[in-house]
Write the structure tokens for this entry.
Amino acid sequence: MAKVVVGLSGGVDSSVAAYLLQEQGHEVIGMFMKNWHDTSVTISDECPWIDDSNDAIMVAESLGIPFQTIDLSEEYKKRIVDYMFAEYEAGRTPNPDVLCNREIKFDVFLNAAVQLGADYVATGHYCRKEEIDTAEGKVYRLLAGKDGNKDQSYFLCQVTQKQLSKALFPIGHLTKPEVREIAAKMGLATATKKDSQGLCFIGKVRLPEFLQQQLKPKTGNIIEIAADSSLYNNIETPRYSSGDEDLQAFTRAIKYQETDGKKVGEHSGAHYFTIGQRKGLNVGGKAEGMFVIATDTITNTIYVGMGDQHSGLLRNGLFVPQADVHWIREDLKLARGEEKDFLLRIRYRQTLANGRLYQREEGIYILFEKPTKAIAAGQFAAWYLEDESIGSGVIS
């Protein structure tokens, strides 16, 4: 049997992951990642990472496994937090959970586990790993979790074959109710604990307050763009075409100017908002809700549209620069000039959508079969074949 270090987060999922590995006969070590010290941006006066750490300790004691805490706050700030601030300041929408898996859990944490002599690291992710033999050798497949409501393969869309070779996902074949049932049966302290809603291994953080630590409030205009604006007159439904002019046209976001609409309010900083956002606009007196359709951090302007089907929310495609393209399955990578149909998503728990990837020298163009809502620069677009995550990239 193997020596496995489990990332015990203080939640029920990683707790059951540790138990299942122990039942399989592995030598299990529990390790808690301490990623953040600043409690000034938490929802309450409590210190959530301490509570989570205590829960993790109780689980380790119940299972009779060794436990230790590892302080990764310096690496977390450098690789995740600083990146987040820079991205939001530039008007982009990063996904810290995807980054945390790539940069922390399956890099810094994995390396620390290997130094302890571990054969694998395990997490409580709802996803599965499968090993297959190909003409090029052994390949690891990243598969969706069996629980469609909790599938977390999207959060792992940036992992590499090397990282997958050292990863275990013990609960990927279970549903959330089944996990809680196991935890209750074993009397684990985390059996009824609510799922964390905070940033990866930080805790219950309010994102606007978190951003305000470095990105200061700055008053700007909210401009409403009418649904029947002439800006949308030339938007066609894309036809799957390999013509590069079509690809560029169908994947290009509209660039708005304040003269394209009318001022309906003011905001405290364009870098606090993202496309598709409804909360925090404070624009009243409208027949339907107002949604952010674009932000401009250079002019500090937010553009909004009325209703969740506003033309400005919908895009036919997107572009991923070549430097930001990542293939989990290197053996399935598209060659320059190739195109292929995939299933796609741009956010966690979004229903997979049909689309086509076009590999060009400058990067990958993605066209959707149907218009997709709230595509924002900085998000990760992930592509699948059936339930297997094949690759991903950062939207330009």
Remarks:
- The mean pLDDT is 91.
- Helices lie at 12-23, 48-63, 73-89, 96-115, 161-165, 176-185, 207-211, 244-251.
- The longest helix spans residues 96-115.
